[in-house]
């Protein structure tokens, strides 16, 4: 069985109910996007986040970066943290692009497009899946998704080093893509510290940033407990999956992000990035 290379292949594993839900949702978003404009507000930072840029999503991802540039500037996560910690004013509109999980197509597709468009990104990797083998680790890879046996190739450590050398940032997404709320304190600490050490030892880049798998507070992680553990582990930021803009005075340990698919149209970006 070959690794999935296109979004069309990926969605072919979805059931009819899921496909119909997507059609109705997109129609609703199209209607709701009328009259919305990303430029209707300012002085914020938004975090568009992706999981993949499949081969058939490259054009869409390029178009999206160009679209976002019409409304603001790209900014690195290090600069975001520095700005928030300084208490400085957020003057304008900024986009900090991030990716979750650590799929191979981030290296083959996303990074070259980011470089060509003068942007960088943070890639949050589940370190226990890096350097996995499509044949020898097939069952582990199948179990990554809840909705059927889908085989997607993950990054290698050499890929991660190449990305870091190209100006990208490698962040932690735990070792096992763990839902922290289901773990005890000792297990959470292990996921945080071990993934950080693996990145620093294999990439040669200090790992300052952590992104919570699944990322909904009080459902996927315990806010007070896990924030304390993230700080204690030496991270300088923590990112969630709650939508919304980041404004002056926000904590770098509760950063909101907006989930984006690389094949989405402009109206979908316009809707979600103006909420």
Describe, in plain words, how this protein is organized in 3D.
The strands form three sheets. The protein has a five-stranded parallel β-sheet. A three-stranded parallel β-sheet has the order 1-4-3, with no helix packed on it. The chain has a two-stranded parallel ribbon with strand order 8-9. With 275 residues, the protein is an alpha/beta fold. The protein has a single domain, classed as Glycoside hydrolase/deacetylase (TIM Barrel). Strand 3, helix 4 and strand 4 form a beta-alpha-beta unit.
Shape: globular
How many domains, in number, for the residues? Answer: 1
**CATH class assignment:** Alpha Beta
Shape-level CATH architecture: Alpha-Beta Barrel
Summarize the biggest pleated sheet. Answer: 5 strands, parallel
Mean pLDDT: 97
Residue runs with pLDDT of under 50 for 5 or more positions = none
The class by helix and strand makeup works out as alpha/beta
Question: Could you spell the SSE succession in H and E letters?
Answer: HHEEHEHEEHEHHEHEHEEH
The CATH superfamily appears as: Glycoside hydrolase/deacetylase
Q: Proportion of β residues?
A: 5-15%
Number of E-state strands: 10
Task: Output the radius of gyration.
Answer: 18 Å
Quote the distance from N terminus to C terminus: 41 Å
Strands of the widest sheet, in order across it, are: 7-6-5-2-10
CATH fold title: TIM Barrel
The DSSP helix count reads 10
Helicity level, as a percent range? 25-40%
